[in-house]
Every structure is written in C-alpha cells, then in structure tokens.
Amino acid sequence: MTELARNIAEIGSHFAIDGTFVGGEEIESGHINTTYLASYQDDDGDVSRYILQRINEYVFPEPLVVMKNIERVTRHINRKVFRAKRDFGGQTLNLYPGRDGKNCVSGPAGGIWRCYNYIEGCRTYDVVENTRQAYQAAKAFGAFQDLVSDLPVEKVSVTIPGFHDTPARYARLLEAIEKDSHGRVESAKEEIDFIKSRESITGVLLDHLKAGRLVERVTHNDTKLNNVMIDEQTDEAVCVIDLDTVMPGLALYDFGDLVRAATSPVEEDEKDVSKVEMRMPMFEALLEGYLETARNFLTPLEIELLPFSAKLITMETGIRFLTDHLEGDVYFKTHHEGHNLDRCRTQLALVKSIEEQEEKMCSFVKKSSRS
Ligand code: GN1
Ligand code: MG
C-alpha cells in the first residue's frame, strides 16, 4: 500500500463505512479542500466508493458551522426529494457519520474531515463541452435554489462573512496593492487599472439589497461547472455538490458565477487570454436551464439583473485571484508561479467579453422571460 493509500485508509477508519478498504486516490479539482476518493468492498464483493474531505481551516475558520449548514441543507433536500418522488432513481448527496455518530471527525494529523457518498456513473467538467451540459448545469443549480427556497435564511449560518461583498473584496485589493508585500504590483499594473476603472459597478447588487429591492435567499455561492455531477451516459445533471459555501446570499451570485464558469471555451488558468470568450449559445442555454427551475421564485428585478451579475461575479473572482497573487498565494491552491495572476487575467478577459455582449444578453433575457 502506498503512503497516500495508508493515510486515506486511516482517515476512512473513523467513519461508519461498511466493508474493507481496497484503494484510495486524491482528487485534485478544487482550489480549497483536500479530497480523497476511497473504495470499500463488502462481504459479497461489491465495491462502494466514498469521498473523504478535509475542510480547509484557513478558508473556513469554523468548520463545525460549515458542517451544520451542510447537514441542514442535505436533510432538507433529501426529505423533499423523497416526498415528491418516492421512486426517485437519481442520487443525492449524503453525509456518512463518524463511528461516534457525529457528522465529521478530527483527522489523525489534525483538521476536520467529513465523508460523502460518491455519486456513481457521473463526472464533472472544468470546461463546458456543449449547450446541453450548460442547460443541465443551470437547471440543477436553479433546482437547488428552488429546493431550499422554503428553508428560512436564518437557519443557515454565514461561514465566510462578506463572501460575495464585492466592494469589500475591492477594498481588500486596494490594501494589498498599497502593502505590496511580495513586490508583485509592478507585474499586474494593467489588471489593476482594468479593475479600478470599473469600481462603480462593485456596489450595484448590494445597494439593491440594502434598499430592499432584492431579497436574501439560501444560495449555493460556488456554482462552478465542476460542482455539478453530470451523468456520463445521458449528459443529465444528477446532483449539485460542494455545499461548503451554502449561505444566505443573492440568487444572482449563483447565476453570475455559473456564467463565469460555463461560457468560456478554456480553463480558468489558460495563459492565452485571446481564447477567452463569453459564448452566447452557452449563455442562452444557461439562462433557459436556470429559468426552467427558478422562474417561479425569481422577481422581475432578479431576472433583469442576470447578465449584470455575470459581469460582476466574474470581476469579483478576478479581484480575488489578483488579491491572492499580491498577498503571496495564501488562499487558492496554486501549481506554478503566477498561477493566480493567470487566473485573474482570464477573468478580466471574460469581463471584457461580457461587456461587449451585454446588450445582446439583456435582450435575450427580456425575450426569454416573457415566454
Ligand atoms: C474556489 O473550492 P472551489 O475550487 O470549488 C472558491 C470559489 C471560487 C473558485 C474559483 C470557498 O472554489 O469561491 O469562485 O475557487 N471557493 C471558496 O475557481 O473560496
Ligand atoms: Mg468549493
């Protein structure tokens, strides 16, 4: 057994999982948590797989509150899905308790770990391949918001204060520029200017919220395309994963982040930014999928602001990558020098592409919301 497999087996042994450990590997797609896939064989020879995940405590200083949120939300969803469709053949996310009955365990080398069922027969995509996948992903996130729309916002705690507070993210960037703790400001002049010239858009959504024109809902807050499990055979979205950031938020954050993550033909860290583009057919598919499941609870103002939210959340993510670059790469996992700056550049290129097509996007939204 490799050392990695031994570690995985050790962590797995603290959870109430049946069977004998037969293998494990690391899954490296997220930027935040450490994730393992572990396989267990039962007496009949059947193999079941589980996700073991350590919560990043730098990002989530209160992992137990994160776990409480997830437990509340998965229970709520699973109960409703079961009630609505007794013959439900799909898969939902379930937490497996530790041997002591708690929803998470302390790891042997520290840290808080939790265990989920692995959603079989599905895969995730970093880059969208076709409009069907875009439609399905948006439909799944809309369905998620719909399923939790009757869960009172107060039942879910804020685990990262100001997560989508774009003005606060902007202020933090200005501080990082001022400090220039790693001498990197010089290398990011163009990006800094790009963001500074768009300061006026940072507060738009929060201003609407403060004025009572938008409402807070229970939202996912990390609607990356690779947080949707897609059935390998049918291309249908089966289940939304990565519930760590489920918090009170705006429905618009989720849609905006989805457009950010699922309209460009290249990965988030593509070095050739000329390849970055907000592809209109993908946007149209996202909008149709989202409205299919979210139309019932969205207000006219929310619908009107959908294209704007895409621009804002994409710029916010650019701001976050740039801030982390200037602060020495302490938040997002990086795999090469300048990784966060590369990521920032794709985001800003996407903002530009959205700006160029914003009118078209708005007309499409108007047309679709009428039908
Ligand atoms: C992080 O964990 P992951 O890779 O799904 C981040 C998101 C960013 C995203 C950018 C808790 O998501 O907010 O949009 O990277 N999650 C957290 O790729 O900060
Ligand atoms: Mg995440």
Total beta strand runs: 11
Q: Compute the separation of the termini in Å.
A: 58 Å
What is the total domain count? 2
Shape: globular
CATH superfamily of the largest domain: Aminoglycoside phosphotransferase (APH), C-terminal lobe
CATH topology of the largest domain: Aminoglycoside 3'-phosphotransferase, Chain: A, domain 2
Strand content: 5-15%
Average pLDDT confidence is 94
Q: What radius of gyration results from the CA coordinates? A: 21 Å
Give an overview in words.
- The chain is an alpha+beta fold and 371 residues long.
- Helix content is 44%, strand content 13%.
- It folds into two domains: 3-67 and 94-118, 2-Layer Sandwich (Phosphorylase Kinase, domain 1); 127-370, Aminoglycoside phosphotransferase (APH), C-terminal lobe (Aminoglycoside 3'-phosphotransferase, Chain: A, domain 2, Alpha-Beta Complex).
- The protein has eleven helices and eleven strands.
- A hairpin with a 5-residue loop joins β9 and β10.
- α3 runs antiparallel to α7 (251-262) and α7 (251-262) packs antiparallel against α8.
- The longest helix is centred in the last third of the chain and has 32 residues, at 339-370.
- The protein is globular, with a radius of gyration of 21 Å.
- Bound molecules: 2-acetamido-2-deoxy-1-O-phosphono-alpha-D-glucopyranose (GN1) and magnesium ion.
- Residues 30-32, 59, 222, 224, 227, 242, 244-245, 268, 317 line the site of 2-acetamido-2-deoxy-1-O-phosphono-alpha-D-glucopyranose.
- Magnesium ion binds at residues 30, 32, 222, 242, 244.
